[in-house]
Design brief:
The protein contains five helices and six strands, in the order αββαβαβαβαβ. The chain is of the alpha/beta class. Helix 2 links the parallel strand 2 (27-30) and strand 3 (45-49). The longest helix has 10 residues, at 54-63.
């Protein structure tokens, strides 16, 4: 699935990285605990989260996350946006809650990290 598909499915606003929406995403991960992202996230995932601080971008970089979509109408501050932009990490935001966001993506064919082998 491409990031542009995720944007459309979630009715998301692109915050940064609009030129990267053709990037492929192989699976999704939804978490507000960055320790869970580091433990269970996989390279090539999109991260859905309600956390908007710079630690989310650092965690995404370490876990080789393809993009971040903030849920529940959350918005990152300018430092977080700037950090993501400098790393080429697309950020999006949706007003949908995390459960519904994950459900819509799954229903449209994006698989979860548990469905992929090591």
């Amino acid at each position: 699935m491409k990031l542009q598909d995720i944007r459309d499915i979630l009715g998301a606003e692109v915050i940064t990285g609009g030129n990267l929406l053709s990037r492929e995403v192989s699976m999704g991960c939804g978490a507000d605990l960055m320790s869970d992202v580091l433990a269970y996230g996989k390279s090539g995932s999109v991260l859905l989260t309600g956390l908007t601080n710079q630690q989310v971008v650092r965690t995404a970089e370490m876990a080789e996350i393809v993009a971040i979509c903030f849920v529940r109408g959350k918005r990152p501050d300018e430092k977080t946006v700037s950090m993501a932009s400098s790393q080429g990490l697309p950020l999006m935001g949706t007003t949908l809650p995390m459960f519904e966001s994950c459900g819509r993506l799954y229903k449209n064919g994006l698989r979860g990290v548990s469905e992929y082998g090591e």
